[in-house]
Specification:
The protein is built from 15 helices and 15 strands. With 399 residues, the protein is of the alpha/beta class. The chain is globular.
Length: 399
């Protein structure tokens, strides 16, 4: 068994912390922190602008990061990798650019599982464009109702926008099935990969998704950098989201000719150090392989779910197919009271609606507690958590 905690200085600096909130943002390995620091100290300059050596080195490190992302997700061309600020910006980019193409009456399918980041941008498009949003419902066990999807899709549906892995219930959606059916009707598929990317090996070519969005900070990289993958022919067709310097081929007072993808979507000075940092985070993950990380996460999730299910009054929202994301409520006890008690014991979990308010409404709950696992978590973390959870419940219920 690998002791992953030793790679993450946060745990040496906070030995009593039990960190179970990696779904919100993962901790950073020393390797990534040092590499970003070194870049600032030794090689920093703006990219793609200077003929001098520092700028050339910075530019090639930045370009290498794009290659690393391309290989990491199995994309065909590096032009298919657009850097954004994160998942939220990647989906806003798509919503904005598609708003120039979609017409009144066109239908966009979302799901009842979505994070606000993959809901509100489409609501905004609907408000101004007259597109119609329809929601693939969930079944009682929280899984998507694929029969509903297959019975309701039609040629009016232009986009299917779906989370790859729910950030509340925690299982992976059947992306292959959705893509197959959507493509039969000419619809494009956008996957919100914010959670998916940290816990599963992803190959966009095999999945045949049209777009995939994810954030660097959830895969042990820095904040401020994310990725939009898109099939090249689709990115070529979409208009840019932001405009300005560095994304132009030719500019006159009357008009501008944009560069091709990905530069077309990357206006202004990019987050250079963060992009390079993301590349190093991918190097770090590749040391262990995503297959290994996926398997380990499943085993620890199974262990955690079994233990949490045994705790008195707990009602699990997640189930045996969930991976690394486990949500639950405690009947008769406020989730906030429990999370406050856990916080006093240095146990970091998330409480609330996890930016998925409509899903919580659908489930008939006001809020939930969520544990989300990173590669550094182990059975000891789960044991401490379950112990303190039991402690909190018995104190609050006065038993
Ligand atoms: N989608 C899902 C499923 C998420 O879990 C998150 C992060 N909580 C996001 C989108 C948004 O990611 P970010 O805040 O990094 O843009």
């Amino acid at each position: 068994m690998i002791d992953f905690k030793k790679f993450f200085p946060i745990f040496q600096n906070n030995p009593n912390v039990v960190f179970l909130d990696s779904g919100a943002s993962a901790q950073k390995p020393e390797f990534v922190i040092n590499a970003m620091n070194d870049f600032y100290k030794k090689d920093y300059a703006n990219i793609h602008r200077g003929l001098y050596n520092l700028s050339q080195v910075a530019s090639s490190l930045y370009d290498e990061a794009r290659d690393k992302v391309k290989l990491f997700i199995g994309a065909k061309y590096k032009e298919e990798i657009v850097f954004t600020k994160g998942t939220t910006e990647a989906i806003n980019l798509l919503a904005y650019s598609f708003s120039k193409i979609l017409k009144k009456g066109d239908v966009v399918f979302l799901t009842e599982l979505e994070h606000h980041a993959n809901l509100i941008p489409w609501q905004e498009v609907a408000k101004y464009n007259g597109i119609v949003l329809k929601f693939i419902p969930i079944l009682d066990n929280g899984e998507l109702d694929y029969d509903w999807f297959e019975n309701n899709i039609s040629s009016e549906v232009k986009l299917v926008c779906m989370s790859g892995q729910s950030n509340v219930i925690g299982f992976k959606n059947d992306i292959e099935r959705v893509v197959r059916v959507a493509h039969n009707f000419g619809a494009k598929v956008i996957i919100d990969g914010a959670q998916l990317i940290s816990h599963f090996k992803i190959d966009v070519e095999t999945l045949n998704v049209d777009f995939l969005a994810f954030s660097g900070h959830k895969i042990y990289g820095p904040t401020g950098i994310g990725v939009l993958y898109g099939k090249k022919e689709l990115l070529d067709m979409l208009p840019p989201y932001q405009v300005g310097g560095d994304m132009v081929e030719k500019v006159s007072f009357d008009k501008t000719i944009f560069k091709k993808t990905p530069e077309k979507f990357e206006a202004g000075t990019p987050p250079i150090v963060e992009t390079i940092g993301l590349g190093y985070a991918i190097d770090f993950l590749n040391e262990f392989s995503m297959d290994f990380i996926e398997k380990e996460a499943f085993e620890l999730t199974k262990y955690a779910i079994e233990k949490i299910a045994d705790v008195k009054n707990v009602r699990l929202i997640s189930h045996r197919n969930s991976n690394a994301v486990i949500s639950f409520v405690v009947d008769g006890v406020s989730s906030f009271d429990i999370a406050s008690f856990l916080a006093m014991k240095n146990i970091c979990v998330r409480v609330g609606k996890h930016c998925a308010e409509p899903l919580h409404n659908k489930l008939g709950i006001d809020s939930s507690i969520r544990l989300s696992l990173g590669i550094y978590n182990d059975k000891r973390d789960i044991d401490i958590f379950v112990n303190e959870l039991e402690h909190a419940i018995s104190l609050i219920l006065g038993k």
